[in-house]
Structures are given as structure tokens and as C-alpha cells.
Amino acid sequence: MGRYVARRLVQFIPVILGTLFLLHVLSVLTIQIVGDPVRALFGENAPPEAILEQLRANYNLDDDCLEQTGNPCVRLFVDRLAQYASGDFGINFRGRSVAELFVERFPVTVRLTVIALVFETVVGIFLGVMAGLRKDKLVDNFVRFSTVLLIAFPVFVFGTLAQLFIGLELGLPLRDSERAPEWLGQMLTVTYNPEFPWLSLMLPGLVLGAFSLAAIARLTRTSLIENLRSDYVRTARAKGLTSSRTVGVHTLRNSLIPVVTYIGIDIGLLLGGALVTEGIFNIPGVGQLVFLAIQANDTPVILGVVTILTVVFLVANLLVDILYAALDPRIRYE
Amino acid sequence: MRIKTHFRVTAVAAAFALGLTACGGGGGTTDDPGGNPSGEPTGEPGGSYSADLTEPTFLAPASNCYESECSAVLKMVNDPLVSTDFETGELIFDGMAESIEPNDDQTVWTVTLKEGLMFHNGEPVDSDAFLRAWNYSQNPKNAQATAGFMARIEGAGKGPEMSGLKAVDDQTFEVTLSGPFSQFGQQMSYAPAFAPIAQECIDDIKACNESPIGTGPYQMDGKWMHDQGITVTKWADYQGELPANADTIEFKMFTAPTAAYRDYQNGGVDVLNVAPEIYLEAKGELADAILEEPTASLTYLGFPTKEAPYDNEQLRQAISLSIDRELIIEKVLNGLADASTDIVTPPIPGSRDDACEFCTYDPQRAKDLLEESGVDPSSFTLELYFNADSGHELWTEAAARQIQENLGIDYELKSTEWAQYLELLDGEEFTGPFRLGWSLDYPSPENYLRPIVGTGGDSNYTGYSNPEFDDLVVQGDEAATLEESFELYAQAGDIALEEMPIIPMWSGTTAIAASDSVGDVRYDVGDGEIAFGEITVSQ
Amino acid sequence: MSDFLAAQDSAGHEHAQPRSDQNRSLWGDVRYELMRNPVFWVSSVLVLVILSMAFAPQLWAETSPTARGACRLENARVEPSAAHPFGYTNAGCDMWSSLVYGTGKSVIVAILVTIGTVIVGVTLGTVAGYVGGFADTVISRVTDIFFGLPFILGALVFLAIFPDRNVWTLTAVLTMFGWTSLTRVMRGSVISTKQKDYVDAARALGATNFFIIRKHILANSIAPVIVLATIGLGAYISAEATLTFLGVGYQRPTVSWGLLVAEGQNLALAGFWHLLVLPCAFIVVTVLSFILLGDALRDALDPRAR
Question: Which of A158, A222, A310, A323 best probes binding to C when mutated, by most C CB atoms within 10 angstroms?
Fold first, then answer.
């Protein structure tokens, strides 16, 4: 096991290099095809050329290769790696340190992700088990239908409706009321409130986790149904084990393998991909940061932040792979 | 007009999509009671309120402020040097300058400061504070966004100090321009570009950006909470003349206008810029409580006048006649605009309400003109350009459909990212009509005519050049009285509106919502901003 | 080389006869199962309707909203009435024909992306999981690289580069960032199936790897992939809407469900509910039909369910 972890850690290096290079090529191509992001900071009337040149130099965007479409700008990439290696993630178009920006926003995103993850895992697995155990019964049909609704509604519609009806229509009277507890009103939030760093992320977290909840519930259900039919469950039943013990010990553990894989993937998606939810609830998170950076082609931010996100994601997935061994002891790490 | 930044819009691109929206003459002195959309204002100072804002780019040095978000904050924190009266175009000395005097040929300007002025940190506001700031701003090494405002001063952009900037004594300094410029006084009323800077600030610019040291009626209350908020409180030692009614103003940052509106509904925001996306919903709910004020911004379509078939004057006129501006304003812009009758927008002195013959919808006349022009409508496709994701999709499409229906010209919509759009603009590479906007730098018809359609104008991307037009504008500049100059500008405008290198579409309207707890809410056309300092809180 | 082929060949022959027998009865069972399942009937009729709208919209609506003179601004946002049960869009186009002509843009992309991601995901996932070792390392790490770029962000960067957004660019981008999760799940599933007794038994009996994969591994590992793929089909339909909402999906004057939803989102709350409800209803019914059809097929195809 120790050797396995060590080997995976070594493998991080090419993965991070690969991710960085992919991003680098994408951002270079964007500049080459779409146009000079520094010029785009200004309107129709550009400031004097000398100012633009100085700004390009400040942001390391003054290399000639950025004007040659298709040139991957390898030298820029190497320079940037050297810069990252020394712990310097550069500055954004507003002169702020990228590392600082990340540190400011990451805790918010982590809180949001934790809420979404706990919600989707607990409720998703619970619904999946209920549906799987009572296949084709009312519960099953309810779960199957309601999860489809969660999948079908685009998140921006779902989020806006939740914000309006739960956050405002339901939440506002509670916040105004003297008798309702404060935490309840703050939980049904309209926008993120830094004074309630956890409570005001509850509703956005539920919105964010809704899609994955549907996926987890469906995965658990299918997996459970498959496993309930397998030989070892039949054997266990034949041995006279009670149904709950069969489900709990024998079946569920095996059924959770695809679910665990999915959750591992989802961590990455939630950390960086919450931009729509963050926009609706005005949450200053990492997703919005990268989204706005992409819009402005603020390369230092895109690369810096996604690099850090990648590391986090890789660690999360390593943990998932180790969790596999716990769920299924037959998986050996050679 | 203030452009709210949101999801799909690059903050900076949006702020500039309609020109330098923030570059208004000082204003703030017009006695317009404005709207009092709701609530019972006490008119008394005190209290606190909150307003929505998009994260500004920079707060210090002020010379790096080139969009309306930072100027909204800086206008509270900094006093201007001088202001310009919006009605007359004259200077008003309600800022830090006691007097501003040009020499005879308007090349040397002497600025005298008022006595006893201070920065928030106690440093004196003297000639050195201005020299320090202006020299810093013009130096290309410092890459200040508004450095262009210094370009007329002798020796600008060449090194750490300009040869044209000299302190006479503590209260007086002299500015030598590289050529005569009669509007330099008005130009200096763009406060951020000409603000002084404290020594403490220039010593640690990074720290100063987080908590700017200004000279204005308000000072920062704590640090700039990035992406969350900025709070300013009244400065007890303020000696200036600018209004400061509320004790505390909290600017809350939003990235999406819908989120800002939900927070307004929730009681979290008192004064809100109602973005077009949520206007219909807000209007339905708040009705007359929404204050609607005309802005000075112009939206227009430019033609590549050197490209066939757009080199044909009658075709350009026909296209303009075939667009039903009123219908588009009603259905697409929800009434938040006024159809153009001139290139100069209504709030500007000298604008006219009947100047544009070809701006009223007349499909029959459009057809006749097209026939006269001899251009075969089936021989080309009208390629209509606009920058993507800034809310121009719907109206450009509607206009294109009307052109197609009335003239039989097929269309293709060409949208590009802002960066790409600028490259097309700078290279004059458009192959069809293109959308652009303009807003004032200072309130004069000249500030619309010359840049947009004058030969080599800063914002003239049409290739249009008419010596007769240029001549009339120069004559207008030199006229003895304001009345005479307006007359000459009008004659120039008539030429442009006849030959139509651009089609004026409409001038904008801004919508503001205010909660019951605030009053005296007014939109300042010159600043392109709500006059935050004037707002009162009912207690 | 020739020995290897011969071995494969003989392995194929060995099982040829019994398998075709089995197949016939399996398909017979499948048909029987499906015929008596009302969910299958309803969902497959709906899917057929949707597909015909996608590929032949002229069957369902006379004029395309992009045709000359099809939209009149005067009609903008007119609400449904008896004469016009679907009302008009924000641009004054007929809502029904916008929905019909928008089907293709949304559904075809979703189908193509689902097919693409399943092919790539199942192939790479099976290789990684079954072969293991170096192949697994390479595939898993390449997957990681693509994972490093969150799906929606990756799509944003890519689509910003392609100014011309059509079915093909959207399909390419969504596939490029969508194959990874299926690969990962398939790999995990294959690894756990590989350890099963019947695989060991087959190997002991001398079955080739190809045979084991085809016969045992695929059949027993595919379930989670099918679940995720059907979910994905629905998710890609709403992903198109989300991308459009963020400004990198289709652009007007193209019509798509995503464009209609993104546009209707703000206007619905201003009182024009039909602008949001109708396109959302189309998306929900479509997603529901595809997922239920997927469920029904999977249940019928699973021999152990009987």
C-alpha cells in the first residue's frame, strides 16, 4: 500500500505538467485567435501604445509568439513553470496576487462543496437504497421520476427558482419574524452572507448537489439491484441472515464501488464547476473567479487557480482509490 | 449610462462598450430635484444605506480608474479639482482649485489651490501632491490607465517627470501644454485622472489600493473587501463643498444583476441599478417606484463607407429608414431608450429633437430610395456586426429582420468577442454595418460630432471624411458665443445626418430602484452615476 | 501471430453454436419483456416523436422561425391563447415552431455526445481496468489531466476559441470533456468484475481475454455506465442550455431549447411564464423519455432479472 501511494504521488508530476500544458496551449490559442486581452481591457479608445506595452510586459503577454497563430509558445510555458516552482503564481489584470485571490476564495468553495457533497451522498444513497430494495414499487417510481426532474432542469433555472421561492418567499418572512430562530432564516438565503459563512451556503449547496444527488441515487439503485441478485446474497439469505444484515454488510458495500468512483469525480466538478450556482447566489467562490478570468482571458488566474485545483482533485482521487481497497479487499495494489 | 457587469460580460469591456462612460464633467450642481421614487426623505444628513456595485478594477492610484465602478467609489472618497456645469459648459470651482487661468493662447494654465486642504491622513494637499500624482500617471512605466489624459502636457510619456509641469509655490502650479487647447479646464474635471496623491499612498501603492487615502467627503471604513463590499463613512474634518448626507454608505458587490435585485427584494440593498435583464420583472413589481432618467449615451450603427455597396449614400439612408426604432425600443429594450433624432443625445446642450430626417420609420420611402440608389438588394448579404454577450443580440437581430422585410436584403449576424471586435475596429475590417456606442467626455455637441464622424476622429471607424463638415466643427470651436457655436455644430451635424456614415439608433435610459428608507435619489448625467452623496436616509 | 489468430478462431467456433441459440432465446425474452412493459411503450413513442422532430421538423411545423418574415416583433412575448396555444417568443416568433425547430440543435448534440462518450469511455475503461499495469497508468493519468479542467470551464475556454458554434463544435467540446467520467466508472466497475469467481473459472477453462471481456466483463460491468450515460443524455440537453446561458452555446438567430430557456428565465418572473415553462417542459419530457427507455431496455437486457 505504501509503495502504491508513493508511486501515485510520483505520477502526479506528469499529470500536473500535462494539465498545465493543455491549459497553456488553450490560453495561448485564445489570445492568438480572439485577440489581445490587454487591448480588450479598454474600450474603443485605447490608451497610448506605450501604456499597453508596459501592461503586456507586466502580465508576461509581450512575447511575439502570441501573435503567431498555432505557435504553442513553449518558452513562455517553461518560464511559467519556473515561476510556479518558486511559489510565485503571478498577478491578475487588477494587480492582485493570484495566490492571494485563491486563498480568499477557496474556503468559501470548500464549504459549498462539503455541503453539496454531504447532501448528495447521504440523501442520494438513502434514496437509492430505498428504491433498490423496493424495485418497481411506489418509492422506486417516485425516486426514478424525481431524479429525472433534477437532471432535466438546467441548473440556472433550478437555482433561480430555489432562490426565489425558498430563499425569498419562504425565507424573508422568517428573517423578518421575531419568533423564528435566526439560523432558519439565514439558512433559506437569497445571497451569500459572509456573516453566516455556513448557514447562508446551505441553500446554494443543496442546489449545487441536486444533479449529483440524482446520479448517485440512480447509481446506487442499479448497483444494489444487481448485487441483490448475486450468488453471495442468495447464499447469505439461505444461511438465514436477516434482510437488513444482508443489505448492510454484503450488498451495500459492494454496490457502493461505482458510487464512490462517481463521488471522487464529483469533487473535482464541484470545486471548479459551481460557477452558475455561485453567480446566482452571489458567492465569491473559485468557479466565479476562473469564469471571470476566462471571460477576460486573464491567463495568470486561469493557469494558477486551475493548477491548484488539479492538485486538490488528484489528492481526492488518490483517497478514493485507497477507499476502493477498503470497500473491496480483493482489489490489490501491486 | 452605467453598464452593469455580470455573468457574461467582461467587467472592463462592458464598462467601455459605450465609450468612456465614466468620463463625465463634474456636474453635481444642477438643481434638478430628480426623482424621489419612494419613501419619505427627511432631507437631513445622517443614517446609512447600501447600494449595489460590481467589483471595481482599482481604487488607487486614482489615475488607474477608467470605469464607472471605481469612479462611483472614488467620487465619494476624492474631491475633484474642478467641475463643469452641465447646462452651460462653464467651470465651477466647487473642488480643490481656487482658480484655473489659461494664458492668451491657452498653452499655459495656472492652477491655484484653496488654502488648508488635507488628505484623510492629514497630509497637506499642495502643489507637490498634484505634481507627484500627474508625473506618476504620465510615466509609461507605471502603466496608468488614464495616462492618455496627460498626453497634452509638454513632455508627457517621456520619463519620470514632465517638463510642462512646475510648482510655483505651495498653492500654485503651472501646466504647459504642447499646443493650444481651450477645453483643458473642462478636461480636468474628470476627477480620477487629475486627482492628487498622498505621499503615504505613493510609498505603498498596494496598501493604498486596499484603503485609498483621499480628499473627499467620505473616507474608507476599513479595507476594500474584495468581491464583497466597500464601506465609506463621512470624514469629520471635511472642508469641501460636495454633498455628503448619509453617514455611511455600503457598496455591496454583485457579479450578476439578478442576484443584486434579489438582495434588493430581500432588503439587503437600498439603492439599485436596475439592469435590463431584470427590468421587466422589477417594473412589474415596483412600478412607479423605479426612477427612469435619460443618459447621454448614444447607440449607433456605423457603415464601412469605403466598401461597396455601403459607399452608396442612398442605400445608407434607405437602411436607416427601414428600421422601426420605436418598435425595437418598445419590444426589445422595454422602453428604456429614446429613438435618436440627432447624433448628439438629448441631455447635451445643443442637441436637437428634429435634426435627423432619415431616422423616422418609413418603409415606403426606404424602398424608393433603395431603387434610386441602383443597388440590387439580392446582390449582397448584409453582415451586421456586434460584440457578443453584451445584450446586443436581440436588437441587432430585430433591426436586421426589419431591413430584410422592408428592403429585401438578406442578413447574417456576426458576433465576436470583445477583443476580436476591437481588432476589427482598429483595422477597419468590417464588411457591413457595426454596432458601437458613445458617451460624453464633456458636455458639448463637438464631443459627439468630431470623434464619431470627424476626419480621423478617435472613434471614427467608418472611413468617413468630409472637409466641409470638419471645417464647420472648427468654426464652431472658435465661435464667440455658445449660441453661435451650437448653430455651427448643428450645420455640421446636418451634413453627417444627410450623408449618414453612421445611423443614430437611440440614446439610453437608466433605471434606478430605491427602497423606502432612502430619498433624494438622483442620476447624475455627467458622471453617468447615481449621485450617492446626495442621497438621504429617513430615520 | 497466426497461432494467435487460430486460437481465437477456434475459441470463436467452440462457442458459436450454443451462443446463437442463447441469443435467439435472449432476444425473444427481451422482446417479450418489452412488449408487456407499458413504460417501454410510452417512452419509445415519445422518443420517436422527438427524433422525428429533430430530423424532420417540417413534419411538425410549417415554417421555420429563421425563415424570412417568420417572426414579427409586434408579437413579442404574446401569451398563449386559444387561437395560438403556444404563444410567441421574446423575438416575436411562433413558440411552437421555435420549439420544434430547436429540437434538433439540442437533441442531436446530446445523442452524438452520449454515443461518443460511451464508445470512448467503455473502450478505455475496459482496457484500463482489465489489462491494468502500464496501460491503466497511462489511461488513468490522461483522464486525470482532463479532469483537472472542470467540465464547464473547459467547455468555456474551447467554445471561446470557436466563434462558429454549431452542432459539431458543441458535440466535439462536450465529448472531449465528457468521456472521462464514464472511463473512470467503467474502469472501477471492470476491476471489481475481474475479481469475480466466474471470471477466474473462465480463465481456468482456457478462455481468451477477448472472450472473457466480451462475455463476462462487459455484460457485468456496463450497468453503471448505462445509468450514467442515460443521465448524461439528459444532462447534455440541459448543458446546452447552461452553455448558452453563459454565452458560449448557440447564438441567435439559431433556435435551440437552450436559447429559449436562457431567454425565458428572466422573463418568466416578469409574468411571461410560457417563455420558460414550455421549453422546460420539452426538455423534461425528452429527458424523461430517454431515461425511462434506457431503464426499460436495461432491465429487459439483464438476464438475471428474470
Answer: A222
CB-neighbour burial class of residue A86 (10 A; exposed 0-12, middle 13-18, buried 19+):
exposed
Note the CATH number of domain A99-327: 1.10.3720.10
B277 or B480, which is more confident? B277
Dump pLDDT digits (tens) for C82-134.
888 899 998 889 999 999 999 998 999 999 999 999 999 999 999 998 888 88
Q: Is the peptide bond before B257 cis (omega within 30 degrees of 0)?
A: no
Each residue of B445-468: pLDDT tens digit?
Answer: 888 999 999 998 888 999 999 999
Examine residue B87 and state whether it is found in any structural domain, yes or no.
yes
Q: What is the pTM of this model?
A: 0.87
Q: Which residues pair with B165 in a beta bridge?
A: B175
Is the minimum CB–CB distance between B420 and chain C shorter than 8 Å? yes
β-pair type (B523-524, B529-530): antiparallel
- The pLDDT assigned to A246 comes to 67
CA distance A216 to A117: 11
Helices (H), B51-126: 68-77
Number of domains in chain B: 2
Within an 8 Å CB–CB cutoff, is residue A200 touching chain B? no
| Residues in chain A closer than 8 A to C304 (CB atoms) | 226, 229
Residue pLDDT, tens place only, B481-498: 778 888 999 999 999 999
| Chain C nearest CA to B433, separation (Å) | 17
Can you tell me whether residue B83 is helix, strand or coil?
Answer: strand
Residue B8 touches partner C, C-beta closer than 8 Å: yes
Domain annotation covers residue B264: no
In a domain, B131, yes or no: yes
pLDDT for residue A333 is more than 60: no
Based on the fold, state whether residues B380 and B313 are members of the same structural domain.
yes
Measured in degrees and rounded to the nearest 5, phi and psi for residue C124 equal: -65, -40
Q: Which residues neighbour A2 within 8 Å (Cβ) at sequence distance 6 or greater?
A: none
Query: Final residue of a domain: which of B253, B269, B290?
Result: B253
SS3 B461: coil
Where does chain A hold its CATH 1.10.3720.10 domain(s)?
99-327
Please indicate if any CB of chain B lies within 8 Å of the CB of A55. Answer: yes
Q: Is residue B269 part of a domain?
A: no
Same structural domain, C273 and C187: yes
Same domain assignment for residues B209 and B322: no
B332 in C contact zone (CB under 8 Å): yes
8 A C-beta contact, residue A149 and residue A270? no
Which residue, among B375, B386, B381, B384, has the nearest Cα to B410 in the 3D structure?
B381
Helix/strand/coil for B307: coil
The CA-atom distances, in angstroms, between A178 and each of A171, A175, B525, C111 are 13, 8, 43, 53
Interatomic CA distance for residues A207 and A151, integer angstroms: 12
Residue pair C268/C277 in contact by the 8 Å Cβ criterion: yes
Convert the pLDDT of each residue in C136-177 to its tens digit. 889 988 888 887 676 666 777 777 777 678 889 889 888 988
Name the DSSP class of B429: -
Q: Which of B70, B262, B263 to mutate to test the interface with A (most CBs of A within 10 A)?
A: B262
* DSSP type of residue A47: P
| Torsion angles phi and psi, residue A314, rounded to 5 | -65, -40
Do B456 and B332 lie in a common domain? yes
Q: What are phi and psi of C142, to 5 degrees?
A: -65, -40
Chains near C (3 or more Cβ pairs under 8 Å):
A, B
Q: What is the mean pLDDT of residues B414-442?
A: 88
Coil/strand/helix, residue B347: coil
Strand, helix or coil for residue B22: coil
Measured in degrees and rounded to the nearest 5, phi and psi for residue B432 equal -170, 180
Does C263 share its domain with C125?
yes
Q: Which residue has the cell 431515461?
A: C291
Range of the domain at C218: 37-305
